[in-house]
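pls design
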């Protein structure tokens, strides 16, 4: 994941069109000082998340849920 976040460009596209919905657990620390947009393409639609949303000062890891073309982000624990 670190290599993807450090790649040139402002946009990351993750193709998951074989799945209607997906859940990811992401270490919040990976997103510190990263300013990109991640687009998740699923069979249920596309959803975007800003990496700045995934970083949080609490250091708690995050869960990203993509359902019906919408993404939600919550702390774990």
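designed seq:
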């Amino acid at each position: 994941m670190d290599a993807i976040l450090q790649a040139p460009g402002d946009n990351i596209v993750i193709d998951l069109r074989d799945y209607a919905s997906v859940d990811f657990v992401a270490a919040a620390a990976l997103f510190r000082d990263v300013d990109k947009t991640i687009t998740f393409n699923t069979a249920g639609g596309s959803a975007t998340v800003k990496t700045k949303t995934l970083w949080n000062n609490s250091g708690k890891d995050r869960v990203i849920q993509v359902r019906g073309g919408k993404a939600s982000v919550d702390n774990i624990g």
